[in-house]
Amino acid sequence: MDLKYLKKIGIYIVSAIISLLLIAYILYHFIGSFSKEVEYTPAVVFTQNETVALDIYIMRSEQVLYSASPGEVSRIYEDGTKVAVNTVVANIYGGGTSSISSSIMALDNKISILEDSNMEDGMSVYDTAAIDSRIDELYYTILDKTASGDLEYALRKKDELLTQLNKRQIIVNKVTSYNDRILSLENQKLSLTSQLDSITATVKTTGSGYFYGTVDGYENIFSASRVDDMTIADFDEMINSKPDDTLTDGSRGESVGKLVTDFTWYAACKVQKDMLRYFTEGSSYRIVFPFSSDTELTMKLYRVISQTDRDDVVLIFSCGSLPDNFNFLRMQSVYLVKESYTGYKVPVSAVRMVDGVQGVYVLDGNVVRFKKIDALFESDGYLIVAEQDILHDEAYALKLGLYDMIITKGRGMYEGKIVD
After folding, report:
1. Rama region for 157: left / alpha / beta (φ>0; ψ in -120 to 50; rest)
2. Torsion of the alpha carbons at 33, 39, 40 and 46, rounded to the nearest 10
3. Residue 309, class by beta-carbon neighbours within 10 Å (0-12 exposed, 13-18 middle, 19+ buried)?
4. Pairing of strands 45-59, 331-347
5. Partners of 405 in the beta sheet?
6. Mean local confidence (pLDDT), 68-94
7. What is the pLDDT of residues 151-199, one digit of tens each?
8. Helix, strand or coil for residue 177?
9. For residue 11, what pLDDT is reported?
10. pTM for the structure as a whole
11. Do the Cβ atoms of 343 and 325 come closer than 8 Å?
């Protein structure tokens, strides 16, 4: 066989393949340059918190208030109202039935849940993904606790789960707010209260403080007086305790609420000892309370309880702030803000590596440009990247800037590409 002939045929085949590939490459970029399948979003400044989830237990100085007179209870003040000594905080009505009182208490609970479910205007600290994650966590925790027979724990979590589900309805725009429903329930409460007879007794405070209309039986167990001497074993015993029967107290009668006698309150939680690298006793920390419309409070790390023979520690935070409509549910999950990052919010799916440089493609008019980014933090499918420093960075033009149009969808992007 003629080797020269075979060699010539081989060269011809290879040349043909290369030519076809070159034609395909040119056509691909020519057609792609006029593709209308391009989506983009502006680079805007956004603040993202890096958080740690904690299960905290609230400890306060609380005094249960009782009424020795039988009848229906009508509380005069809303939770958290500051009252002076010898103030009438509840009226006792004669007549009526216990079902009326029970119905009023049930309405109070529904109103409280809906008030906690409302989100303040513009508040979006935790997006749908975070809410969904918390709902899943609560759901499976309740299932697990119920299966193990710990119904009290499951019931304590029930209201938080309902609140998170309600919040999600607002976030996904299924509901604007729960104000109309709250108003309807308050009207029902007024109607029930009007069915009661005349006042037969009153309940007065024996000191000054802040009035709350519900008791949970943990007023003496989760007492602020314990924070200075508490051990880890004491904490374990406290959180595993059954509530006291504070609804009745012999000759003192039935409870009608409680008085918080000190504005300083505490939040205790247990973490693994290796978490201590994030904490310094005496320092202040930002803590977000999802069960109170994502209220953020600055709390001081009052005390760290640590033992050499244990791998866990107890942290006790203190706070002197009493926000309006704050929910002091005894046990609740919160988010401690480790760090806040402010910069441009960039979808992770838009990030590319070009010549070893991390960046994004942006649309400059109808021309594609590649802009470098400096990632600060990643969460929920987004990066927070450093803002431009036009005054001090000579290379700012090569980096992502405010309101640059980040290309989030598009085929065959490259520097200089023309987009129709």
Report:
1. alpha
2. -150
3. exposed
4. antiparallel
5. 42, 363
6. 83
7. 666 776 777 788 888 888 877 777 778 888 888 888 888 887 776 667 7
8. coil
9. 59
10. 0.62
11. no
Q: For residues 56 and 182, what is the distance between their CA atoms, to the nearest angstrom?
A: 28
User: For residue 287, how many other CB atoms are within 10 A of its CB?
Assistant: 21
DSSP 399: B
Contact by Cβ (8 Å): 416, 403? no
Burial (CB count <10 Å: 0-12, 13-18, 19+), residue 93: buried
Tell me the two tokens of residue 321. Answer: 């702030």
Q: Which residues of 16-48 are buried (b: 16+ CB within 10 A; e: fewer)?
A: eeeeeeeeeeeeeeeebbeeeebebeebeeeeb
Cβ contacts of residue 15 below 8 Å, gap of 6+?
A: none
Per-residue model confidence (pLDDT) at position 248: 59
DSSP string, 247-314: SB-GGG-EEEEEEE--S-EEEEEEEEGGGGGG--TT-EEEEEEGGGTTEEEEEEEEEEE--TT-SEEE
Supply the DSSP string of 35-97, one letter for each residue. Answer: ----EEEE--EEEEEEEEEEEEEEEB-EEEEEE-S-SEEEE-S-TTEEE-TT-EEEEEESSS-
Condensed to tens digits (0 to 9), the pLDDT of residues 119-129 reads 655 445 445 66
321: CB partners within 8 A, 6+ apart: 297, 298
Residue type for position 362:
V
DSSP H or E segment with residue 211: strand 209-212
Whether the CB-CB separation of 138 and 290 falls below 8 Å is answered with no
Q: Residue 267 phi/psi, 5° resolution? A: -130, 120
* pLDDT single digits (tens) 210-246: 999 888 889 999 999 999 999 999 999 999 998 887 6
Extract the tokens encoding 354.
């070009």
Cβ atoms of 133 and 51 closer than 8 Å: no
Q: What's the rounded Cα separation, in Å, for the pair 417 and 33?
A: 6
Instruction: Please give the single-letter amino acid code of residue 284.
Output: S
- CA distance linking residue 178 with residue 235, whole number of Å: 37
d(CA 334, CA 54): 5
DSSP state of 224: G
